[in-house]
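Appendix C: a fully annotated inverse folding record. The material below is reproduced so that readers can follow the format used throughout the book. The structure is listed first as C-alpha cells, followed by the designed sequence.
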C-alpha cells in the first residue's frame, strides 16, 4: 500500500506539471500494485481516466465514470470525473459530477472552487430579454464562438 501511495503521489505531481503520459504510467503502476477489489482501486482508476482524457483518449472518460459508479462515496473520484467531463465539453455532466461530489463532502475545497469557476455565466446579449429567449440563446452562441476579440463594441 505504501508503494502504491508513493506512485500515486508521483502521478499527481506529473499531472500538475501537464506530464500526462508520465502521470498515466504512475497511476497504472499504483493501481496494479493493489488487489483489484481494493477500495482504493476505484480512486486510482479515476486518476487513470483523467490522465487519459487529458491526452485526448476518450476511453478515459468511461474509466472515470466506472470508477464513480464503483465507489460513489469518494468526492475526489467525482472531482476527477467532473474535470474529465469538462475537458471534453460536457459542462452539464461536469456540473452534475460536482454536485454529486459535494453531496458526499459539502466542504470539499477543490469541488467548491471548480463549481464556482464553471457556474459563472456571462450576461445575456440582450439584457432586457430573458436568458432563455431564443434570440438571446442564438446570439449568445454566436458571440461565444466568435470570442470577445471578434465582437465589435
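Designed amino acids, in order:
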Amino acid at each position: 500500500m505504501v508503494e502504491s501511495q508513493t506512485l500515486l503521489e508521483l502521478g499527481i505531481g506529473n499531472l500538475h506539471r501537464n506530464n500526462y503520459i508520465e502521470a498515466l504510467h504512475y497511476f497504472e503502476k499504483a493501481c496494479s500494485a493493489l488487489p483489484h477489489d481494493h477500495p482504493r482501486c476505484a480512486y486510482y482508476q479515476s486518476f487513470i481516466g483523467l490522465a487519459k482524457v487529458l491526452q485526448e483518449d476518450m476511453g478515459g472518460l468511461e474509466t472515470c465514470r466506472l470508477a464513480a459508479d464503483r465507489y460513489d462515496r469518494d468526492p475526489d473520484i467525482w472531482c476527477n470525473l467532473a474535470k474529465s467531463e469538462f475537458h471534453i465539453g460536457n459542462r452539464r455532466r461536469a456540473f452534475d459530477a460536482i454536485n454529486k461530489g459535494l453531496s458526499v463532502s459539502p466542504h470539499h475545497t477543490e469541488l467548491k472552487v471548480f463549481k464556482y469557476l464553471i457556474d459563472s455565466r456571462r450576461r445575456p446579449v440582450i439584457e432586457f430579454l430573458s436568458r432563455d429567449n431564443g434570440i438571446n440563446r442564438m446570439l449568445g452562441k454566436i458571440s461565444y464562438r466568435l470570442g470577445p476579440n471578434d465582437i465589435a463594441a
